[in-house]
Amino acid sequence: MPVELSNKYACLIPLCPLVASRLTGSLSFFFPKATKSLRRLCATFNTSSLIIAMFVSFAPFRQQAATHSIQQYLWARIPKSDFRLKIGFLIDPLTLAMSILATTAGISAMVYSDSYMCHDQGYARFYAYPSLFAASMLGLVFSPNLIQIYVFRELVGMCSYLLIGFWFARSSAANACQKAFVTNRVGDFGLLLGVSGVYWITGSSEIFELCDRFFELNSNGVINPILANTIAPPPSTGPVAKSAQFPLHVWLPDAMEGPTPISALIHAATMVAAGIFFTARIFNPISTLPPTMLIISWVGGVTTLPGATLALAQEDLKKGLAYSTMSQLGYMVPASGIGASRPASFHLITHAYSKALLFLGSGSVIHSMEKVVGYSPTRSQNMFFMGGLRKCMPITGTTFPSGTLSLCGIPPLSCFWSKDQIIAESRLRSPYLGLITSATAGLTASYTSRIYLLTFEGNFRANRVSYVGFDTSSPLEEIVTLWGGTRQESLTTQTSNDVTSKTDMELSGVAEARNLVNLCPSEENSVCGKAIQNHSKRNLLHPQESNLCMASPLIALAIPTAFAGLAGVDSTQKGTGLDLLFDWLISIPSFPEANKHLENLMEILTNSTPSLSLSFIGLSISLKAYGQTKKLADTKVYKKVKSINEDLLDTFASHIRDWSINRGYFDYYYNICFAGSVNLISKLVFYFDRWVIDGFINGTGASSPLGGEGIRQGRSGRISHYLLGLVIGVISPVSVVDLPIPPLP
Question: Which part of the chain is the NADH:ubiquinone/plastoquinone oxidoreductase chloroplast chain 5 C-terminal domain (predicted)?
């Protein structure tokens, strides 16, 4: 009875943030002035609602581990009709894991946002959006039927549109939210077609019922295999768009225009997680269709490797992490396609905590950099302006490496256990997919460690770059090259001293101030004087550690990033056939039994030697290239390689940089193929409407006065002329009538 009672209260999980969002939004709309004075109260109310949802999620979570049951509660929405729709909520291990993930990540983002967004005028409006975002995602994971899932997916897409375009006055943010919205509409249209097709075949939209009917019809040979494999792929277009898989991945880097806490929420627990969750939810029926499974696996395989290569030379900190998300989601999709649905779900959870930590850590860095270089994203998010931040931001610099090493797949951090299982399953099912996932593991270690090294290690570089006539490409070319080293034409000549003295920094600030004076007209000296003063102060500043409100979520997220994956070590099955997700659910409540899972640790590490070797190779390359650039130039190996293959390496590095900076040229070709074709068709329709449709109408209108004018000229006023016309009009029809020929006698 207590189990059923707590499960019935599970409807409060999505309801709490929904009520908070509606109240905050209504208050902001109807009483904007009062909302400004109550903005901290609105933030506390929305955060508390999500905390309540999290605690309500833990009650059925513990009972689920004890009973291993699957329950659903349904209410008939349209009872008296041929089309019966039952709404309700479903409780199973996947639902509870996703609800805890969404609530914990949402709470971290909201607590973090209190300091990150405190200066923004839309503070209260901002808090209404993440609450609605979390409510939509929680409603999606508790949905027992495809129609309810589709409705909540649309709400998730709407919230992403609102949050990506939160700073809609900025043209780049407005374009980014429209791009994300249109791209996801393509995927959702395919999902709608697939849901309609599944209902047409099975006659049901409830997940468990349609699975049973599909198995029954398929086993009896009622369903044509060609028809089934034609209807099954369209539902997967929804996850392809939501989870940023090729070819609908182009919206994800532009989505970084939104506030950084929202980027963490999108990449960890809501937007991109919705696609993987839907694939796991409908896994049972599509697992009986090998062609569909093959398509799904190769869509993910084609995505994961390009995603990793696109992140290799990104200058923008957030976009580098965005392409990392695209690549990691590419692990989960082929895992579902080869039948490893539970490892894919487990990797979704471990990756979510790691990526939430990295995004919130990057937000902490950006928030501190804005005080030094200004609020332009081309400066505050550019990794080549950073460096040496570990010394001045100790909490961020300590927690960020745990997320970095977790994505690299280094044991015992969480992503290692899930990623290694996916790589092992890929090698068993498909050698080519195994090769792709293994190579991606090495690339992942390379670009994630590159992000950390450029941001936190070395010396701070922002105060060495002139702000006058700044070009966004200059830091990449003048401060540090793609694979390390410096150029002689650098704005700041590298000397043997690693740290520029304070006197030199002051002199450089005065020189730049003089340059600014020469650029200012005499009548604007007062305005320019303030700008010069602020600019000189900026050159002497270094980023400072964020306050406790932003640092505490980083510390909290570092715990599951480090230890959540340990629950996936199963001591009974010797590392094979792991039910990773369910073991993770069971082992956490019984933490004293966790030591039993460590018995098989050495065997798992031995089996993961190939992928670990590639990860360490990627780490070593980044450490050599970006860790100590001067030591790299002095090493014998570097000199030997440089003397033999200098041109080859330069060409290779240049191609990788161009590929990464230009986003793989996908936007360029999409603009030509899709945007260009739409513009061409629009112009053709415009000219057809203007010259053919309007021409016919305008010609008809012009013929009326011309005909009237001709008739007016024919009216002479003489009766004889009118009589002649009357006679001609009467005789003419008679003359053309064919008279019948009488028959011959």
Answer: 450-689
∠ CA 122-128-130, rounded to 5°: 105
Query: Residue 247: is the preceding peptide bond cis (ω within 30°)?
Result: yes
**Domain boundary assignment for the chain:** 291-466+544-572+603-628, 666-734
Alpha-carbon distance of 176 to 258, in angstroms, equals 9
Contact 264, 356 (CB under 8 A): yes
From the CA atom positions of the chain, what is the Rg in Å?
33
Neighbours of 232 (CB within 10 A): 24
> 269, 211 in Cβ contact below 8 A?
no
Q: Which residue has the tokens 């090998």?
A: 290
* 711 and 705 Cβ atoms separated by less than 8 Å: no
pTM of the model: 0.80
Torsion from C-alpha of 497, 498, 502, 505, nearest 10 degrees: 100
CA distances from 436 to 248, 324, 344, 345 (A): 20, 15, 16, 20
- Give the chain's count of helices (H) and strands (E): 36, 2
Count the alpha carbons within 13 Å of 552 in the hemisphere toward its beta carbon: 11
User: Quick check: 56 and 580 in contact, CB under 8 A?
Assistant: no
Distance CA 314, CA 661 (A): 6
3-state secondary structure of 145: strand
Rounded Cα distance between 542 and 460, Å, is: 8
